[in-house]
Automatic annotation (TrEMBL):
Gene name of this polypeptide: thiD_1
Organism expressing this protein natively: Lysinibacillus sphaericus (Bacillus sphaericus)
Keyword Cell wall biogenesis/degradation attached: no
Keywords: ATP-binding, Kinase, Magnesium, Metal-binding, Nucleotide-binding, Transferase
One matching Pfam family: Phos_pyr_kin
Domain Pyridoxamine kinase/Phosphomethylpyrimidine kinase: 13-258
EC number: 2.7.1.35
CDD domains given in the database record: HMPP_kinase
Name the UniProt record assigns to this protein: pyridoxal kinase
Length: 276
């Protein structure tokens, strides 16, 4: 039986919760066939868990992209890209891929890590990636950087940022309020270019949400490969990640990854969708 083919152009999170590890686990849970073009390897200091990001040689990235694209892919997502050159190469790969099922997760920082990646990356993402996006999935900080508005602090400010990001070329935008937004629920804003929707689920008190953003974007990617509409894809992704966060767990004293396979095992919390 042939499966839908999903590609992630992303970094390796050696701790397994985020990055290409989250993407592959999530692709598998959605019944798609996952492939990876690896950009960087993230390792952690065993004492204190400080992140270290090591880019792979770009010739090696290009060879991986050529390999994966030669199979004919049904959807592609980007994750941590880390340098302007990698962002440009990813953009060229997507333009060549032949699919319009393109999810840009504009990863700029790791949760719990203050080191913001090179600001030139934001401009490179705007130039090379946003115009190709069927959906882009910034968190609050990333949305503020892309829109040039500073981090949104309310639903109204999220709407303003989403409009700007849409004007930059992304066909649809999900700004993830997550637990940073001061709302009772875990609230994300979805803008399809015409209508705004709030996607809401119970806010989980736990801090075990490492990899939530990657898992959300990978779910959207697999759903698009499987033929769902963009709106259906983001709603299912919200259910999928809500279940994964509700069952997040402590890997060690430093990090709590989401449980990528929670929805199929335990079901998903309710998600409400409201047009605003
Ligand atoms: N504590 C939480 N409870 C429920 N949902 C959450 C929680 N934290 C994040 N989410 C959801 O997880 C998804 C990823 O969001 P977020 O963690 O902000 O992204 P990122 O990992 O990219 O920073 C979003 O749908 C967000 O609303
Ligand atoms: C390789 C890699 N990609 C992406 C991320 C971003 O993860 P999140 O899903 O928490 O936004 C991380 C964070 O550690 C990472 O290591
Ligand atoms: Mg993220």
């Amino acid at each position: 039986m042939a499966l839908k083919k999903t590609l992630t152009i992303a970094g390796s999170d050696t701790s397994g919760g985020a990055g290409m590890q989250a993407d592959l686990k999530t692709f598998q849970e959605h019944g798609t066939y996952g492939m990876v073009a690896l950009t960087v390897v993230v390792t952690m200091d065993p004492n204190g868990w400080t992140h270290n990001v090591t880019p792979l040689p770009t010739e090696l990235l290009q060879k991986q992209i050529d390999t994966a694209l030669s199979t004919g892919i049904d959807a592609v997502k980007t994750g941590m890209l880390s340098t302007e050159e990698i962002i440009r190469i990813a953009g060229e790969a997507i333009a060549k891929s032949g699919t319009s099922n393109v999810v840009i997760d504009p990863v700029m920082v790791c949760k719990g890590d203050d080191e913001v990646l090179n600001p030139g990356n934001t401009d490179a993402m705007i130039q090379h990636l946003l115009p190709l996006a069927a959906v882009t999935t910034p968190n609050l900080f990333e949305a503020g950087q892309l829109a040039g508005t500073g981090t949104p602090k309310s639903i109204d400010e999220m709407k303003t940022a989403a409009k700007k990001i849409h004007e930059l070329g992304a066909k649809a935008v999900v700004i993830k309020g997550g637990k940073a937004l001061a709302t009772e629920k875990a609230t994300d804003l979805f803008f399809d270019g015409a209508t705004f929707y709030l996607l809401e689920s119970e806010k989980v008190a736990s801090t075990f949400n490492h990899g939530a953003g990657c898992t959300f974007a990978a779910s959207v990617t697999a759903n698009l490969a499987n033929g769902l509409s963009v709106k259906e894809a983001v709603i299912e992704a919200k259910e999928f990640v809500s279940a994964a966060i509700a069952h997040g767990w402590a890997l060690n004293d430093y990090v709590g990854p989401v449980m990528h396979g929670a929805k199929s095992r335990f079901g998903a919390p309710a998600v409400t969708v409201t047009e605003i």
